[in-house]
């Protein structure tokens, strides 16, 4: 697959009232955001069954029906739920999950199907075997991993190739740089990183007041990076990114995304949008790139604010 440098991330459009929600979300605004991204040429959408407990996939499916574009559609499995809406992590229902995702998305085949989390660890072989079977059967075109360690990818590779890895990667979360990204580069595994703007922290639009006013069902309220003492440092970084972006007419968020894309191991970045306006703001990230002096400014800040 030849991917645009950024793809549409559909986590937040799952809406509220579930464990990892971003608060209430209007479906009409979600569909508008997706259509705006597709009209601008973004050619892939990344969602997951668990986002909104099936709702994000349904919204993506509605948007696809309204668009003449034919984007690649990626989704994820291994986080299931019941009538109590409690999430259970298992790889024993992947085939059943795939059929449900195909129905919700309204597509004949999933372009990239990913195991969302390698939990429980002892089910990786069983889970990856099922993924390979789904690929052979033509229900999914490619299979990928999300949040896997090097050791877990090595185990999966003994069964079937890994098309891509989806890890978190941003200026504020660089854990994958030491081992995971080099491993992917060495083995020809594509990388689509999520949360390049650290769940909105580096957009330039976040403030302490906005964090305090987040609804109770917004998972970010309890995230470490959104709490002191890290919050003040992170907002200071966002301010610096805004200063770097200003002469180019781009936002702090675009600079944050471009920083992750500068890593040669990164294939493309997943960028969320909850409205057409938000999508318009991040579209420049598809082509904007940082200069070496600008990269150094960021590196100096990160080195002095660890």
Helix and strand run: EHEHEEEHEHEHEHEHHHEHH
Into which percent range does the helicity of residues fall?
25-40%
Proportion of β residues?
5-15%
Radius of gyration (CA) equals 19 Å
Taken from the alpha-carbon principal axes, the silhouette is globular
Give the termini separation.
37 Å
Q: What does the main sheet amount to?
A: 8 strands, parallel, barrel
Query: What is the tally of beta strands?
Result: 10
- The number of distinct helices, counting runs of at least 4 residues, comes to 11
Which structural category do the helix and sheet elements fall into?
alpha/beta
The pLDDT mean sits at 95
Q: How are strands sequenced across the largest beta sheet?
A: 1-2-3-6-7-8-9-10
In the predicted model, the low-confidence regions spanning at least 5 consecutive residues are: none
How would you sum up this structure, described in words?
- The protein is of the alpha/beta class.
- Helix content is 38%, strand content 14%.
- The chain is built from 11 helices and 10 strands.
- It has helices at 27-39, 55-66, 94-105, 124-136, 150-157, 180-186, 208-212, 230-245, 252-261, 276-282, 292-304, and strands at residues 6-9, 44-46, 72-77, 79-81, 87-89, 110-115, 140-146, 164-166, 190-193, 268-272.
- The strands form 2 sheets. Strands 1-2-3-6-7-8-9-10 form an 8-stranded parallel β-barrel, surrounded by 5 helices. It has a two-stranded antiparallel sheet with strand order 4-5.
- Helix 5 (150-157) links the parallel strand 7 and strand 8.
- The longest helix has 16 residues, at 230-245.
- The mean pLDDT is 95.
